[in-house]
Specification:
four-stranded antiparallel β-sheet, alpha+beta, Neuraminidase, single chain
């Protein structure tokens, strides 16, 4: 890819035309758009490409995620989130934090009642996006919190990036049975299951995942899938004892 001065490639992913791209910036903004509608197929690798998100001065893209596309109106998304959050709260009140969105489109829509079959279809298509900040705060948010739009805009809030949270470090889809591993620039590491991280609205601060020192920052977040965790457990169980262990 041909780069402008001062620019650099931060991520490459395989995708399909009927999927969405989610771009997230360190300053807490994100934008989601359908690949087939917004990104044309270029003739060669040495093109400059098209603008995905418009960044403020000093901001930069920190992640690109591929999400499955699902056609739903703003009214349907708001109705689904209300019903799904109510259902989750009834199952485990401590794991859900709902905060009203600040987006005019989503706060001004009229209430609609989702038929059971439509709710079931949206529930089956729902993904969760994990967002983590440099000071060790994070949250999971429903993919229906991230509306699709045209590329090239300033986007919407992915997570509040303030003095408490710090700037954002990572944002990617995650499954309930996955684990994550965080590493700091001070050499500290923590591994935790995803289900311990609260589900919260997009325009919120999240919860503490990793307690860092005042001058310490998280520099890497890695997803460990359920299959990878099982393979690791099997490898450890099969490994012969070392001479030191003996």
């Amino acid at each position: 890819m041909k780069l402008d001065e001062g620019d650099r490639i931060m991520q490459v992913a395989i995708s399909k035309p009927d999927q969405d791209v989610l771009l997230t910036s360190a300053g807490g903004q994100c934008i989601r758009f359908l690949i087939s509608d917004e990104i044309r197929l270029f003739k060669g690798r040495d093109s400059t490409g098209v603008r995905g998100i418009r960044l403020d001065d000093g901001d930069q893209v920190i992640s690109m995620a591929i999400l499955d596309h699902f056609e739903a109106s703003a009214e349907e998304r708001v109705a689904y989130l209300k019903q799904a959050n109510a259902l989750r709260r009834s199952e485990d009140a401590e794991d859900i934090e709902t905060v009203a969105d600040a987006d005019a489109e989503e706060t001004a829509v009229a209430d609609v009642a989702l038929p059971p079959e439509r709710f079931a279809a949206m529930q089956a298509a729902e993904q969760f996006v994990l967002t983590v900040s440099k000071k060790g705060f994070g949250k999971r948010s429903s993919s229906f919190e991230f509306r699709t739009s045209g590329r090239g805009g300033k986007g919407i809030v992915a997570m509040v990036a303030n003095e408490r949270n710090g700037r954002l470090l990572a944002s990617f889809p995650i499954a309930e049975n996955d684990q994550i591993m965080l590493v700091t620039d001070g050499g500290q590491l923590i591994r935790c299951p995803v289900h311990d991280i609260r589900i919260a609205g997009r325009n919120t601060q999240g919860v503490r995942i990793f307690k860092t020192d005042a001058d310490e920052r998280v520099v890497s977040v890695e997803r460990i899938t359920e299959e990878e965790g099982e393979e690791e457990t099997a490898d450890n169980a099969a490994a012969p004892p070392s001479e030191q262990d003996a």
